[in-house]
Design a protein that fits this description.
The protein is 44% helix and 14% strand. It is globular, with a radius of gyration of 16 Å. It is of the alpha/beta class.
Length: 211
């Protein structure tokens, strides 16, 4: 990776949890983002499967200046460019798409592509990504990361997909710089659940991983 290529690891700056938000509407984001940030999770991925995400992004970036807000489920170069234009600090994809990576990097935003195979890992590194998203992490397990580190020494991989507290601990113990967590952390907050319960759950999650 060249010195000019955006770095997701540098952007995370030691943050170990990336909360992945999927809601029925982007209108539901604000109180959840607030609760997460207040409870110690500042890296947040707003997914494009949530209607209105790109439209809501600029205001959320302005409202939460201390948060690292990124956009996920980015599958086209056009969406990557739009996310960057809206203020996204990083772009996450479920797959490895060269045009998505190129568009994000051209806009000065780190790209975190989803990979599953060694061939995809190799290509992501060739494209200038300093980290990859291992997906689906629950299926592959933290042991898979250790195997990847054989042919790819120093590989930075962030697991995503079904990562609960136990899995998060395992991946971090294996050397992952951070973990992406969705349902096990968010619970039912987007289905009428309590935001206060989310605060408590997030605080417990953060404390457990820092223990």
């Amino acid at each position: 990776m060249s010195a000019a290529t955006p770095s997701i690891i540098a952007s995370l700056d030691g943050r170990r949890i990336v909360a992945v938000l999927r809601a029925s509407s982007a209108d539901a984001y604000r109180p959840v983002v607030a609760a997460l940030v207040e409870s110690g999770v500042e890296a947040i991925e707003l997914t494009l499967t949530t209607p209105g995400t790109l439209e809501a992004l600029p205001e959320l970036v302005e409202q939460f200046p201390d948060a690292l807000l990124g956009v996920g489920t980015v599958r086209t170069a056009e969406k990557a460019s739009a996310a960057a234009a809206g203020g996204a600090k990083f772009v996450v994809a479920p797959n490895l798409n060269e045009s998505v990576v190129a568009a994000a990097h051209a806009a000065g935003v780190p790209a975190l592509p989803g990979v599953m195979t060694p061939s995809e890992v190799a290509l992501a590194l060739e494209l200038g990504c300093d980290a990859v998203k291992v997906f689906p992490a629950q299926t592959l397990g933290a042991g898979y990361y250790k195997h990847l580190q054989g042919p790819f020494p120093g590989l930075q991989a962030i697991p995503s997909g079904g990562v609960d507290l136990a899995e998060a601990r395992a991946w971090l113990a294996a050397g992952a710089p951070a973990v992406s967590v969705g349902g096990p952390l968010l619970g039912d907050v987007f289905k009428g659940g309590s935001v206060d319960a989310l605060r408590a759950r997030t605080a417990e999650f953060v404390a457990a991983l820092n223990a």
